[in-house]
Amino acid sequence: ITAAVDAWARGVAALPKPWQPQKPVLPVEGMRNVLITSALPYVNNVPHLGNIIGCVLSADTFARYCRLRNWNTLYVCGTDEYGTATETKAVEEGLTPQEICNKYNTIHADIYRWFDISFDYFGRTTTPYQTMIAQDIFQRLLARGFLLQDTVEQLQCEDCQRFLADRFVEGTCPFCSYEEARGDQCDKCGKLINAVELKNPQCKLCRGVPVVKPTQHLFLDLPKLEEQLEPWLEQSWATGDWTANARYITRSWIRDGLKPRCITRDLKWGTPVPLDGFRDKVVFYVWFDAPIGYLSITANYTDQWERWWKNPQQ
Q1: Helix, strand, or coil here: 278?
Q2: Are 43 and 134 within one domain?
Q3: Which of 64, 108, 182, 260 has the greatest count of CB atoms below 10 A from its CB?
Q4: Taking the model in full, what pTM does it have?
């Protein structure tokens, strides 16, 4: 309080001059460099006030604070555009997935501009950089033995002649009997679901009854990471600022033992898997692919993006 009174008494003329970063904004030696991202809004809807508050407003407030503190700040965001929700929206509107993405990316950008959200760059995930970076990360995981291949039982719609990714299936939840559960989770009880566990499953596209058939997929071999992850978590919990909820969920995953996580889907709309046997069959699952969007959006902003994402000293 005393410092605030003193600053007020000295007046505006005594304040440090506002920092004017160069364009593009890059880390500066000797300054506090702050990279801010918002959760990437999904591209299949028109944002409303709840989306603004829950997604971009808090980060925007923090970005403005950082700039007022004369910290060298970069704030990026963009639309998340791959995955089953885009395909289903395209079917609903009679458009291609790319046309859906173009339509709703423009709507999102216009709305955030109207709200004066202070992005340094607002991008999207359907870009060549997204493909390049996601496939590079995949190749590094493959080379280091962190991927495995396995056969899984999956629902296939014989009328549509396609394997059904999780959101293309609806049915009755096996845990709480909610009749409109999706093939990946139940929105009523919150449990994660394997689509083949649903009771009375239906293809969301044609309402036909799918059959169970085997198909090949790639998995992230998470059990291999447990030995490295546990000491890192202990150190991070001791020195970081984790919420109680984040600690609880992470501990429960570790306590139960990490399981291999499927990173591919039988879809056409997404980043292609650069591996023989999968090139024409599947794309990367959105939760492998989408977080990489933070990197690729920054790469579309500046070709020196690694100075932000691979620069722990700054």
Answers
A1: coil
A2: yes
A3: 108
A4: 0.85
